[in-house]
Amino acid sequence: MNNSRRTFLYSVTSAVALPFLPSLGLAAPAKYRIAAPSSTPPKRMVFLGIGFGVTADRWYPDVDLEGAKYELPKLLKPLSRHKDDITIIQNLMHQYSADGHAGSTFWLTGANRYAVAGQSFHNTVSVDQVAAEILGTDTRFTSVQLAARGAKNDGHGPGLSLAWNRSGKPVAGLDTPVAAFHRMFSNDATPLAQRQKILNDQRSVLDTVLSDAKAINRKLNKPDANKLDEYFQSVREIEIRLAKEEKWLAVDKKKPTKPLSEPGELEGIEEIRMMYDLMVAAMQVDASRVFTYRMPANSMIQSLGATMSAHTMSHYSEGERRTVSQNRDTAHAKLLAEFFDKLKASKEPDGSSLFDHCSITFGTNLSSVHTLKNCPTLIAGGGSGFKHGRHLVMDNPKTPLCNLWLSTLRGSGIAAESFGDATGVIHELFEN
Description:
Blueprint: H1 3-16, E1 44-49, H2 56-59, E2 86-90, E3 92-93, H3 103-106, H4 127-135, E4 144-146, E5 160-164, E6 170-172, H5 177-185, H6 192-216, H7 222-248, H8 269-284, E7 290-294, H9 298-302, H10 310-314, H11 320-345, E8 358-363, E9 377-380, E10 390-393, E11 399-400, H12 401-411
Parallel strand pairs: 1-7, 1-8, 2-10, 3-11, 4-7
Antiparallel strand pairs: 2-9, 5-6, 8-9
Helix pairs in contact: 1-7, 5-8, 6-7, 8-11
């Protein structure tokens, strides 16, 4: 890559004021080296989004039983063996969420979709991508986005994940266990020289489009210039990805301690279970340290015997819809408990477990039907230094959910000054 092109990319970066530049690997030649193993187990983050709310009057613990003396609701009883290692928080919400059909879209961002005049949709960076800028510098994959197949789930399209980049654009996800398995663990049989040529060809395309864009930049009005800045940002992200692919080009992918076979065509419960297994395996080989999973909805309840859609189920009252909703909640609790079991059983070199250094959030932006208050929120793991085994009820029923995202970042050692509409960290999470 020539110096003039690199300088141009830097100037574009300055124009859009992208933070955390050193952590993205653009400031030093060290980005071309594989980091040496550390004796300190790394921090990791996992965000698990279920969508379509919960059975709200049965999912939350009794609001009058706060602290360590709370009882897990019947729907969450499969998590009983992990009760001391989880925390359930009530009264978190996003002040700008007003669309009950777009809960997952803003769950990890807290953005105001109408923040830009004249636009009916706007999003901002998701918390996982902020974390990935720091935690993902030394791993093959800066972050891993797992998704559900849209055609069989919530209609949002295949591969749509929970993650959004610095430009507020969606980050594509791996929407089947097969795709995730091959991406994270299968080595490319294409000869190294051919793979290098493919990368160089891609860079040549970038050189061309950047040159063309630079030529017209001075002729644009402000709105078009802003659009071009977004374009530059997208190109820059491709540049970063290509540089990282080059860094790992000749390094074989590691195999987990317990070898995994290629998954079959799984759906629903078994699909979720396999995605959890793949995340554990990826942590074992340190393939990535940041994960999001937009979980299947329709296929999940159908694997439990339901014939309705998840959207229909979410509009429950008494009767079959409520039964399906409760069965879904309990099945999620069982799968989550199994995931925690495997993280606790997988040991780091110092004898601690993956669970001890992982921050896990399970929830959604929607409580039930179209209600966007009191977002269902369950957190676990020791990665952010939270004191678990408690039920927290925020005094303010409109406490920003972004306060949790900011707490998770700072507790994991990421010096984020702010995030979204956060008013500060949730101090109770760090107190005994």
